[in-house]
Amino acid sequence: MDGGRIVKENMISKFIEYFDDNIDNLAMYFSPGRVNLIGEHIDYNGGLVMPCAINLGTYALIRPRLDREVHMISLNFEDQGIYRFNLGSIEYDIAMDWCNYPMGIFNEIQRMGNVLDHGFDVLFFGDLPNGAGLSSSASIEVLTATMINDHYALGFSKKDIALLSQRSENQFNGVNCGIMDQFSIAMCEKDHAILLDCNTLEYDHVPLELGEYLLMIVNTNKKRGLVDSAYNARRIACDLGLKALNEAKPLSGICELTPKEWLTLTELMPSEEVYKRTHHAVMEQYRTQQASIALKSGDLMAFGEWMYRSHDSLRYHFEVSCDELDIIVDAGRPLSGVLGARMTGAGFGGCVVALVHKAHVEDYENHIRRVYTDQTGLVPSFYKAVISSGAGVWHE
Ligand code: GLA
Predict the structure, then answer these.
(1) Both 37 and 183 in a single domain?
(2) Are 134 and 94 in a shared domain?
(3) For position 231, what pLDDT does the model report?
(4) Which numbered atom of ligand 1 lies nearest the CA of 169?
(5) Chain segment 25-80, per-residue pLDDT in tens
(6) Residues having CB within 6 Å of any atom of ligand 1
(7) Contacts for 136 with CB less than 8 Å, ≥ 6 apart
(8) Structural domain containing residue 326
(9) Distance between Cα 150 and ligand 1 center (Å)
């Protein structure tokens, strides 16, 4: 029996356990997580990003109810039991923990003027590692929006779903994220990365033709704390950089500036911190442009080199890396069969993504595990990324 069917059968038996055995109107959906290949911390600076969806993500079984109640349980947090809310009175409630993400989506869809006259029973299960920076929150948001859109035939496009999910996370959950995660999770295609211009929301599905190479995701398994406040501090520094640049040139985002123009404007920066953050954003835009050219022309060596440079900038200029991520990236650099590596996502822990030759994967894992555990006392986890499509009905 394959993994997908086991997941489905297990979820159905849990659904019956937590709700009841009336399963005629059950629908099953899946929404991926994402790994960003390059273009980090520039979605909110109007930059280019290049994420792809992976086959780890969030599954849901959903069934309509007759009343306006929504009852939800996650098999990842079974001890928290079933959360319940009514569509007529939705409010953020810290005690409702993860449920605030899907609840925010119901709230946002109604706030947009859609009348939802009945609720649902929903059972979730996710196989994304928790807190690993692979976008479990965007995954459940886009999943919920996709299910409601289908059920009520609301006619939202995938882009609408991405935008309303981001709005919900910004306004309902108070997390000031950019558009990258929700957009890629809604829009990605199998075996493709998405090259997204976060200024215009124009995008291109770029085939991920990696030949003898694959993408390894290495989870630091470091416990992360206070990521949201550090993230928001980076956004504030970037806004200050943009404000200062606007005195010389009207810009919609830092990433509109070319590296050459930036060199003539650096003295406008009000502080060393703002200089470093702005420098990262301008140069990361350039690196992402170059990396996408390299990928499209099949030059994986060059692509890997841009990954390393991106990591170094996140480490020294944007200062969102940490020892654990640096150790993993550095330990792979001298190995044959490793073309590039970088932290992926918001940082401060989470995962590294590395471009590794298929024949060297075992050596890579053994070496990284030994060095990393020696230096940190932590054991890393490894996933071979399977590049998947965006959220939708689950077909096993
Ligand atoms: C988080 C945010 C994204 C993006 C990345 C960093 O994943 O949700 O919008 O800013 O961090 O690139």
Answers:
(1) yes
(2) yes
(3) 93
(4) 8
(5) 999 999 999 999 999 999 999 999 999 999 999 999 999 999 999 999 999 999 99
(6) 36, 40-41, 43-44, 177-178, 180-181, 345-346
(7) 33, 58, 126, 128, 130
(8) 213-386
(9) 27
